[in-house]
Specification:
CATH class: Alpha Beta
Mean pLDDT: 95
Distance between the termini: 46 Å
Structural class: alpha+beta
Number of domains: 1
Helix content: 25-40%
Number of helices: 5
Strand order of the largest sheet: 1-3-2-4-5
């Protein structure tokens, strides 16, 4: 079985949850990181939704590409589906990414379904802060998710102006 790649742009960058045989900073064209999903499970509830990141159309996204051994494909894909497709707000796709070395590979990733009821779109900055503050889900506090993501983005040398502005309001 052939090795494959998984692209992470949010918590997957700092908590993949599966065995990797290699990793690289990577850029995915045509999609951007966006705090555009109402979280009903991991960082909020249906009654008090939080917000989590999604890959949304347009721009480009810097993140991490993880190389996975081919014989682990079923195990890793099953894990990712259980983690990412809880409410089916994401669609599983394979997209090209450019690795730090300049090589292009195809990577499995999860993009937002804009027609799903959890799709928040591009909320104004004040609405982001209101939605995130105090939201708690099965995976913990929404603020913690944002802080961890920004911390790891900084470690990778990635500046996300909207997330940085949101963190400054906590």
């Amino acid at each position: 079985m052939q090795d494959f790649w998984v692209f992470g742009y949010g918590s997957l960058m700092w908590r993949p949850g599966f065995e990797v045989i290699g990793s690289s900073p990577a850029t995915m064209p045509g999609m951007h990181r966006s705090l555009c999903i109402y979280s009903w499970v991991h960082r909020g509830t249906k009654q008090r939704p939080g917000l989590v990141l999604g890959l949304d159309a347009g721009g480009s996204c810097r993140g991490m590409a993880f190389k996975i051994a081919g014989e682990k494909r079923s195990e890793v894909v099953d894990y990712l589906r259980a983690r990412e497709l809880v409410t089916n707000v994401y669609r599983e796709v394979e997209r090209p990414v450019k690795l730090e070395s300049g090589a292009q590979v195809f990577a499995l990733t999860y993009v937002v379904d804009r027609h799903h009821p959890q799709y928040a779109g591009k909320l104004p900055d004040q609405a982001l802060a209101r939605q995130v503050r105090g939201a708690i889900g099965q995976s913990g506090k929404n603020e913690e998710y944002i802080l961890n993501t920004v911390t790891h983005l900084r470690e990778l040398g990635i500046h996300d102006a909207r997330l940085e502005k949101l963190v400054a309001e906590f």
